[in-house]
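Quick one - inputs below.
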Amino acid sequence: MIFSSKAEYGVRLMIELGRQAPEHPTSLKAIADAEGLPLAYLEQVVARLRRAGLVMSARGAHGGYWLSRPAGEIAMDEVVMALEGSIAPMECFINEHTERVLCSHEPDAGRRCATKLLWTRVQGGIIRSLQTTTLAELVDFAGDPVTGYAEPGSAPELAVTE
Amino acid sequence: MIFSSKAEYGVRLMIELGRQAPEHPTSLKAIADAEGLPLAYLEQVVARLRRAGLVMSARGAHGGYWLSRPAGEIAMDEVVMALEGSIAPMECFINEHTERVLCSHEPDAGRRCATKLLWTRVQGGIIRSLQTTTLAELVDFAGDPVTGYAEPGSAPELAVTE
DNA sequence: CACAAATCCTACCAGCAGGGTCGGTTTAGC
DNA sequence: GCTAAACCGACCCTGCTGGTAGGATTTGTG
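Output:
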């Protein structure tokens, strides 16, 4: 699995916030109920988004969360990065100096690390996909309850089997 | 982390095999020594590659493994797919009917699943990166022990920070 | 034939990250 | 003061990752 449930929950949460008017705080409870997610766990998820500056919050009664920017200005790589911490295809992309044998880059034999080339390309592919998708797109896609047909041009890329 | 160590080890193994003349079997022990990887674990890894038809094997003394096709005809998505089983950004891409709350696609509210759109794009980005890289490229990149400079044009895409 | 080098196969295991839960504290509106 | 919310930190359970162990089988060589 590439992304953990934090990413899934966090993106859903962002979409819910994107559906609301800005500055109108939405409580976590409302989101948890709407999406059927555990409230206590969502707290941890939303904390990451807040620390990353993607959402803002108000405490106390009638408090809640809202997007700190319009959904159209939020690229999904920011969101996923905040939720997952990093987008790393392989361990050595995070811990340069793990004790694991796993990644003996710059090895004694003097050969260049070919797997790093591969994983770097993969990372590029992922980040590009995320960067070119905005939260607003996802909000539009989820859209209003389905009426039977999609708005034209709203789903340019949905070939699952690629 | 996106890929497990099986992918790292398996790709390294394939590169080692790509460096050898075809039909000349290479023993796992030689590869394990060359890469500094545990032999017993490599057995499990290479078994996946064999079952996928990417390598062939000969038992007995002077047995070993070799590529079943020229390295130039092996795209890396095949290799990674064989090693990892699948390339799935999110759990629901594998177990359509897991009991987890995680993925309530086609939900009661009738809204379309926007996260699935996002993960599908990501999956596409990954698979495209892998498909457009052949094993031969990686073998060339690892190349002979570094002499100080790369062959021109051999590393078209190495921007780690992207 | 005996032996050694190799693939092949199955079972087992320890650690740890993922996916939560729980209880409590603080803040703010009514 | 009560209640609804955000906030915080500790804890916990389960399954998967990354191996290890031990053998069985095959095959070239002396």
